[in-house]
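Posting for a labmate who doesn't have an account.
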Amino acid sequence: MIDLIVMEERLARGVQRARERDIIIPTYAQQNNPDLIPDSIKADLADMGLWDIVPRNLFRISWRNQPVEQGGGFGDVNYIEFPSSLTGVPARIIALVGKWFPTGAHKVGAAYSCLVPRLVTGQFDPSTQKAVWPSTGNYCRGGAYDSALLGTESIAILPEGMSQERFDWLAKVAGEVIKTPGSESNVKEIFDKCWELRESGQDLMIFNQFDELGNYLWHYTVTGQAMADVLEKELGGNTYRGLALSTGSAGTIASGDRLKQLYPDSVIAASEALQCPTMLENGYGAHRIEGIGDKHIPWIHNVRNTDMVVAIDDNAVVNLARLFNEDAGRQHLVDEGVPADFVEQLDLLGFSGIANLLSCIKMAKHYELGEDDVLLTVLTDSMELYGSRLIEMHAEHGDYSAAEAAADRERYLLGESTDNLLELNERQRRRIHNLKYFTWVEQQGKTVEELNRQWDDESYWTAVQQQVPEIDALIEDFNDKVGLLD
């Protein structure tokens, strides 16, 4: 469970910092239902940009923001449905859209959920401690954003091979940026840097997305509810079959736990890069699908609830990024019958979003799903964070032609196959779960007893899920102490 022991003296300092910086903390209930947000806060937001580093934007950590960059209120969950003319399968594939969060990625929600329980209990003191955000990209951006709102020093840690947009933005917001060796799948190097910082004698707290249960809880509670609301609106007489998500820190896939409680026959498919097939075959390697770091199983991944593993070729992702965003690619899609107004929205898919779409296509083909079957996924960020990658591909490969567009559509989109896919039985789930031992027990100080409890005792996960009311009560008490709502 998330530790909610209150430390009164430190809590008082956190309250004072929030009062000084005009900070009000939203509850999970308000993130799920913006009708609960006070009208005075909504009025403040009407004049603020989505990415502005202002305290009221904490209330925009929600799937329900009006999809505009400046001002705007709240409405339905932001999502799109992919037409069969694009996917090549009859199944309905629906994706939540992450672009309309502050920072342009949904990871700001996970960072919020790791930080806030520590803040409202006094375990984290923003007046004295540095907040450390180890990440493969978007999570440390979200953490730096949240830290800036609190006026606390932050340290962002991410691999040196991530896109330039991430580093450019962090240079303006984070107190310190540490580049670790390697690229997307070099997570151990991030963990090693965390140990180095722990032993440095600095007063800091490390919010590790890969083992922080607050990450799991936010996606179970907020992303899971957003998905449930989309299904209530869209299902009609259709059948929800499941969701496919790249695992990354295994936060987002916690939404599947919520949906499985609502739809017990639904399937949870975990996706990874073919070039680093850790779940599929205990494999390793480097890949280019930014946002889904591999070579380990995250501590917060409820593996026992995972039904399928799929691996996506990173060549498919980077080439489809060109198809979806280059003029020649978009024109080819329109010529092949994809609605032009939908093609204009394809920049809503960042690299991991493209991988998630391909994972759903694999799933639809494997189960031979029809037009009455619904699959869900998430677009964690958008191409706004990958423009430099398109420039790099231009420099390396030249202009993108109509012939290349046709080839990429046939090979990587319509040609997506059911290769590199595994339906998991109990023994195979246990194999994947056991891989946690080598990262978390041998290297990171977790206990075998807790590792076994994750597998043997379902209440390990349900106990976390049930902490939301207690955390919301602590948030409300914190806000009362701050006194700004009066």
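Reply:
Got it, the structure tokens are right above this. The first strand starts at residue 79 and ends at 82.
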